[in-house]
Structures are given as C-alpha cells and as structure tokens.
Design brief:
With about 110 residues, this protein is mostly helical. About 65% of the residues lie in helices and about 0% in strands.
C-alpha cells in the first residue's frame, strides 16, 4: 500500500523543517547551498519526483530566507492558544466589525 502524500499545513511544516535543517547546516559550516542540500536529500529520500525538485528547492529557499530574516523571537503562548481557539466565523465577524469601525461600508459576500 502506497503512503499518502503530505499536503496542506503538514507540507508547509515539512518545508519549514527542511529550511531549519539548512539553517542548522549554515550554523555548523558557516555556509549552505539550499539547492544542493535539498537535491541531496531528495536523491536519498525521494520526497518529490524529479520534475518537482526545482519547485521544492524554490519553496525551501523562500522559507529559509523568511526564517533567516525573522524579527520576532517569541510570542505569548496564552494569547496564541486563545487565537487558535477562535472560530473562523467569529474571526471574520470581528474583522468585519473592525472594518466598519474604520469606515468601510460594503460587506463581503
């Protein structure tokens, strides 16, 4: 039985893990070539097909650059869990209310 593909949020997490691996290599070696490292990993673990490798390299490179440029080093755990527990509908209602308070008058469909 073939294993199911990783998609969505788990795919993004996998790409972050690959970017974190490249950052760890940079800290250890002083340099890293993200493309070379991701191609090496893919050669050994076949994460994506050969036709998708450039896309994976590009995705990991973007996450790598974003993590390297990250400015915030921590967030409030309690407030994060409060945010995560907010339903999408409640968050949309709050956003609409805030937009109305700023003077926007048309409501999204």
């Amino acid at each position: 039985m073939a294993l199911k593909e990783i998609t969505g949020q788990r795919l993004r997490l996998a790409i972050i893990y690959l970017a974190d691996y490249c950052i760890a290599l940079k800290k250890e070696r002083g340099f890293v070539n993200v493309g070379t490292e991701i191609r090496y990993i893919n050669d050994n673990f076949r994460l994506v097909s050969p036709r998708e490798i450039e896309g994976l390299v590009n995705d990991v490179q973007r996450f790598y650059e974003a993590i390297e440029a990250q400015e915030v080093t921590s967030i409030n755990r309690f407030n994060w869990y409060e945010f995560k527990s907010t339903s999408v509908k409640a968050a949309l209602r709050e956003l609409i209310d805030r937009l109305f308070s700023l003077g926007f008058t048309s409501q999204p469909n």
